[in-house]
Each structure stands twice: as structure tokens, then as C-alpha cells.
Amino acid sequence: MNRRSFCAALASMVPVVYTGNVFAAGLKNEPITLIVPFSPGGNLDTVARSIAPTLAEKLGVSVVVENKPGAGGVIGAAQVARAKPDGHTLLVTTPNAVTIAPLMTKTSYTLKDFVAVGSIAWASLVIVVNPKGRFKTIEELLEAARKDPDSVTMGHAGLGTTNDIALIGLEEAAGCKFTAVPYKGSAPAITDLLGNQIDAVIDQLTSSMTSIAAGKLQALAVMTAERDPYLPDVPTLAEAGVPNFTAVTETGLLAPAGTPDAIVHQLNKALNEAALSAKVKSVLANVGSTAAPSSPDEFQRVLDNQAQNGEALQQKGRLTASQ
After folding, report:
1. How far apart are CA 238 and CA 191, in angstroms?
2. Whether the predicted pLDDT of 192 surpasses 90
3. What is the mean pLDDT of residues 60-79?
4. Average pLDDT over residues 45-62
5. 124-240: same fold as 3-123+249-315?
6. What CA–CA distance (Å, rounded) separates 251 from 296?
7. Which range (89-93, 147-151, 205-209, 216-220) has the least confidence?
8. Does the domain made of 124-240 have the CATH classification 3.40.50.2300?
9. Using CA atoms, how far apart are residues 244 and 154, in angstroms rounded to an integer?
10. How far is residue 130's CA from residue 270's CA, in Å, rounded to a whole number?
11. Which of 129, 178, 229, 252 stands the most exposed, by the fewest C-beta atoms within 10 Å?
């Protein structure tokens, strides 16, 4: 599948209904809804729609993706937190929506209101600009943000998101200051970047890959320790003189707290099988994402570590509360 045909293929994937007679143990003969707490077209939406059809086949029930954007993922996360803990309403998320967001704004939930099902994939974070904009290299962008703090506008997917926290880390590591512009997901941020409304965006490669490949966006740097194999000609931040700082996005699946262990493990088994299937790995690869399945405990440790990192940032006064 080429990248141009990816979006068309993706649109035909969800909802998917499996009509077999064998249903997953513990689950009802009812659809499973994957809540994506951001706008269509972003990283989480792409990952969710990539895995939903194969997950439906593995579980023997229909799987539907539903977007619930707003408040840096809080609206969608809150819906799942209060859902019936029966495995039929799940959250596709990065750790931040349930670990960082509660530290930045008033939420009806905490991390304890969820149980980890497992990791799905990871993707590089990338700094992208409009090729027609004023910055052509990562060095030019950083130097401008050092010499004239707040003169460079940097969009991201929303307060408390992985992208937002990466921006905070970048400012500290590079000794610069941007004017951060939060959006309700990556897609609207990219739309404004394409319209030259902002200077740059920190985004997951997953949601920028198609536009980069088409020449609509230019990637200035990846935030991984080494060059991303999907963007071999794009330098790392370390190559631009910003050592000892990296950031990636991990995507996983959460269920409401109280979901029976048997259902969690059934979902995890199906999730891992789906993530490792040739079909899903191929679809993810087309947008620069890498399948990375895990056990529930492994993904829970990721969540716990992110919560600790958030508390450390809060103590430093680096988390800006939303209004």
C-alpha cells in the first residue's frame, strides 16, 4: 500500500463487523467502542483505525472507532473512566491524557480510574514546518527562539499531551522559548501550519508522514536518539546541538477500572496478536509507526513512570494549568 492510498484504505476499515459464531470469552455479543480523545487524522486516530479491523477479527465482535476530542484528551478519557467496566468501551491513548492532564486541569478521573490493557505502537516525535515558511533548518528555528523568546509559534496537539511535554523538554534542553499554541489534536495544528498561521508543529510522525512524503510539510528534526528509519535524511536534535534529550509517543489501550482480569487478558491477547499481524504492521509502517505490543503490567509501568515525571515537572513549575 502506498501512502497516497492509505487514507482511502483507512476510511473503509471502521466499523468492522465479524459475523462468526465464536465470541471472545467474557465479552458480550455487542460492539466494542475504541474512544479516541482527539480529532480525526491524528496519531491516535490513525493507530486506532489501523488496528480496529484486525482486533474485531480476533475478538469476534464488531469494533468501532469514535472520536471525542477536547481538553487535551480529557473529554474522551472521562467518558471511558465512567463507562461500564465490561470491556466494551476502551480508550486509545498516550499516557499523558491520564497522567499529565489531571495535573494541569480539573478532571473527573485519575490514573486509578483506568486499568492497562496493553501497548499498541510507538512513533517518533518530529518538528515540522511549512516549506514556504521562514525556517529551513532546525538550527535556524532554535536560534530564533533563543535570540527572541516567544517570537516563534509552535503548535501541538493540546495541553498535557506528549507533544506539549516534549515542547517543555525541548525548551529546557535547547535554552530557548517558544509561543506554544495548543490545539484539539494534531490535525487542526497541521491545518494551520499548512496555512502559514503558525511557524512549526511538534507532531507524531504518524500524523505528519503523508504530508511530509507529499512535500507539503518539511521535517526539520526528529526527537529520537537516532535518525528515524522512515526519515533517514532528517537529523536528530543531538545533531543540531541539543544532546541528552529525546521524546517519542507510545500508544496503548486502557479500560475502566474494575474491568475483570479475565476480560483484560482476553483483550490483551487479541491486541497483541493484532499488533503483530502482517496487515497491521504494514499499515502502521506506511505512516511511520512501529508496532510495540506489551502485557498489561508492562504498559501500566509506562503509565506510572509518566505520572512520576509529571509530578516532577509540576514541582518545577513547568506545567501550565489550562483555563
Report:
1. 28
2. yes
3. 94
4. 95
5. yes
6. 13
7. 205-209
8. no
9. 21
10. 40
11. 229
Burial of 66 (0-12, 13-18, 19+ CB in 10 A): middle
| Average pLDDT of the chain to the nearest whole number | 90
Domain boundaries, the chain: 3-123+249-315, 124-240
Nine cell digits for residue 255: 479500560
Predicted confidence at residue 315, as pLDDT, reads: 87
The pTM of this model reads 0.83
| Digit-coded pLDDT (tens) for 128-181 | 999 999 999 999 999 999 999 999 999 998 888 899 999 999 999 999 999 999
| Phi, psi of 255, deg, nearest 5 | -120, 160
Q: Which one-letter amino acid corresponds to residue 219?
A: A
> What is the spatial distance between Cα 187 and Cα 44, in angstroms, rounded to a whole number?
11
Phi, psi of 219, deg, nearest 5:
-85, 120
Single-letter code of the amino acid located at 147: K
Give the number of residues written for the chain: 323
Count Cβ atoms below 10 Å from residue 172 Cβ, excluding itself.
13
Q: What's the pLDDT at 85? A: 97
Would you tell me how many other CB atoms lie within 10 Å of the CB of residue 204? 30
pLDDT digits (tens, 9 = 90+) for 274-316: 999 999 999 998 888 999 999 999 999 999 999 998 898 888 8
Q: What is the 3-state secondary structure (H, E, C) of the chain?
A: CCHHHHHHHHHCCCCECCCCCCCCCCCCCCCEEEEECCCCCCHHHHHHHHHHHHHHHHHCCCEEEEECCCHHHHHHHHHHHCCCCCCCEEEEECCHHHHCHHHHCCCCCCHHHEEEEEEEEEEEEEEEECCCCCCCCHHHHHHHHHHCCCCCEEEECCCCCHHHHHHHHHHHHHCCCCEEEECCCHHHHHHHHHCCCCCEEEEEHHHHHHHHHCCCCEEEEECCCCCCCCCCCCCECHHHCCCCCCCEEEEEEEEECCCCHHHHHHHHHHHHHHHCCHHHHHHHHCCCEEECCCCHHHHHHHHHHHHHHHHHHHHCCCCCCCC
